Amino acid sequence: MSLRPNRLVLVVVAVVAMIAAIAAPATAPVPVAASERSSVGASDRGPTIRGHVTIGDSAVEGATVELFVAGATAGTSTLLSSATTDRHGRFRVDVAGSVADSDVLYATSRGGSADDVAIPDAVELAASLGDLRRGRTAINEMTTVAAGYSLAQFAVAGVIGGPAPGLQNAALMPRNLVEPARGDPARFLTQYPNGTSTETFATFNSLASIITGCALGANDCEAFLDAATDAWGVRPETTWQAMTLLPTNPSGDAPGVFAQVPADPEFTPVRASETAAWVIALRFYGNGRQFNGPGNVAFDEQGRVWANNNATWSRHPSRVCPGTELFLLDPYERRQPMETFTGGGLNGAGFGISIDPQNHVWVGNFGFTGSECRAAPPTSNSVSEFGLDGAPISGADGYLDGPLSWPQGVKPDVAGNIWIANCGNDSVVVYPDGDHSRSVVAGTGIPKAFDVAQNAQGSVFATSNGGDQVFGFASDGSPLPGSPFGGSDTFSKPLGAASDSLGNVWVSNSGIIDIPCSSGETLDAPALDLLPLLHGTIVRVGPDGSTERFDGAGMTVPWGIAVDGDDNLWVANFAGRRLSHLCGARASTCPAGEAGHEISPADGGYGFDGLQRNTGVQVDPSGNVWLTNNWIAVPVQTDPFGDGLVVYLGMAAPVKAPLIGTPQQP
Question: What is the rounded average pLDDT of the residues 602-623?
Fold first, then answer.
């Protein structure tokens, strides 16, 4: 995954793979490690894929193209067929008839020459074919960057493999970056809300131009490979391997990478200045007239993205009213389709959205609205339930049992009980087995209860934004001994909560956000000129209620917090347009070997100019990190809401979806 300490395991895998290969029939596809790839026999041929290999504007003649089917675990694959490109850079490879519909295909190219100039051994190109079984594909610098960043969490030494659905989804993500048949930039990358409106297109072109420079001698390729070395000291041997390692350590030697962008780049525009981290981030905003303050996201078992909406979208302040829509985005399908669902009592959703063990979607109706909305004010006293088909299960008014009051965090536990943090009446309400008619008040006197998270022992912790504490409950709803935990010396306006696999719950300390939990209050966003003073923190809450606070990593008004499959931490910031990344409690997955150690830069995190004010952050089964652009940078009360979602590609250890209780690796 993103930080791999135990690479000696690969040696064992390789040995086992060699034994299996010897014992297997010669024509059987056998998944193997990087050092021992097998091929299928000619008798097993099926459909044909045709393609072309280029460097810059030149065809690559005499290159060896290899077609692989990705394996079941990272660093394993099966060689299906190979070919040599002709003088026009063209090739044809056969797809084995035994390849299943769910299999992921990818291709690599090495060697050959362009315009009679030999391509150095360090230059390896690649393309993700995903579910392509016949037709045309391009292999060039751009397809290499797109595939590397998208498939980073499934690569070991450039060899791809992993579990469903994360691998399958990751293999399709490159289509948002590159048109696969031609190898040109995809419209989604080049047009708004991406394109020149953010730095991503220039970053993408810079990386592609570095590969061209490596091929044509326009830069120091060995220096680039040095700069692309990952956090564990693993140095890539080729440009393809480099593109799979950079997302896992984007701030490692960022200046060293920038130094290898050729003075006369092949692809433009390129970055005009250094970046603190070589991230590739994309904005999703539907048709531009849908998202208006998404508060958080959740992933279903297929890895699709569910998002709520604070308010309705409108150009007229009088119509910016409580959000009444639930969105389902499939970023891996062509044209990124987004479905809209209504009903179920949706009414100004807040931070709460999750999916329970029955694959039902739950949304908390906090009651956001614009200050000039002419509709009736939101009731701020319900939650909504939907099926995965988008059909509402709750009635027109939602579920009111509890009582509920300005609900924020809404999460299931492993038993299917739904826990609801109520900011308005300082309580936590539980729906046993998801049954609203059997509602139980688990706790009261929790000032401005905001979010909940269940730890590995089954205990549930609730953050108190107004009380600078965390309240703990046993799985049956009874208070834990010693609860509440912490105080103002540990917590400061806490908001989001997330658990790890080791029994800890991690809490984000905003330091400044005082959540409004009645109709007479408003949320005051910190002014931009205060940014240098807004250094946020997070707190680890142990199973026994013990607490420890950490800072750094560019945290600036932390809001949402997520734990990835390696138990490391990702924090959304409500100011500063940056994502923060820190070590979690599992020291073996962190280079520093120390809980709470910052991974992203202290002076700016993983910055991206396409971010606004972010609340929710979650990690999907492909290792992508998703954030919600919830508020605009300079908010006005008539319509302060942000315009969509942002995804950082391939940076985190994947998490099984839906997320219920503690995070698990897929």
Answer: 97
Q: Which helix (H) or strand (E) holds 430?
A: strand 427-431
Q: Does residue 79 have a pLDDT over 50?
A: yes
- What pLDDT score was predicted for residue 522? 81
Q: How many domains does the chain have?
A: 2
Domain contains 516: yes
Q: Return the ∠ at Cα 316 (arms to 312 and 320), rounded to 5°.
A: 25
- Look over the chain and give the mean of its residue pLDDT values, rounded to a whole number: 92
CA pseudo-torsion sign 148, 151, 155, 159: negative
Picking from 156, 283, 166, 259, the residue whose alpha carbon sits closest to that of residue 210 is 259
- Residue 408 has which token pair? 């924020």
Residue 216 lies inside a defined structural domain of this protein: no
- The residue among 643 and 523 whose pLDDT is bigger is 643
Domain presence at residue 309? yes
In a domain, 195, yes or no: no
Residue 567 in this model has a pLDDT that exceeds 60: yes
CB environment 245-262: b (16+ within 10 A), e (fewer): bbbbbbbbbbebbbebbb
The 3 state secondary structure assigned to 379-404 is CCCEEEEECCCCCECCCCCCECCCCC
What is the model's pTM? 0.93
Residue with tokens 């690599």: 108
- Give residue 42's domain range: 9-144
CATH number at residue 352: 2.120.10.30
Residues 6+ apart with CB under 8 A from 74: 1, 153, 154, 155, 156, 160, 161, 162
Measuring CA to CA, which residue among 547, 508, 525, 653 is closest to residue 590?
Answer: 653
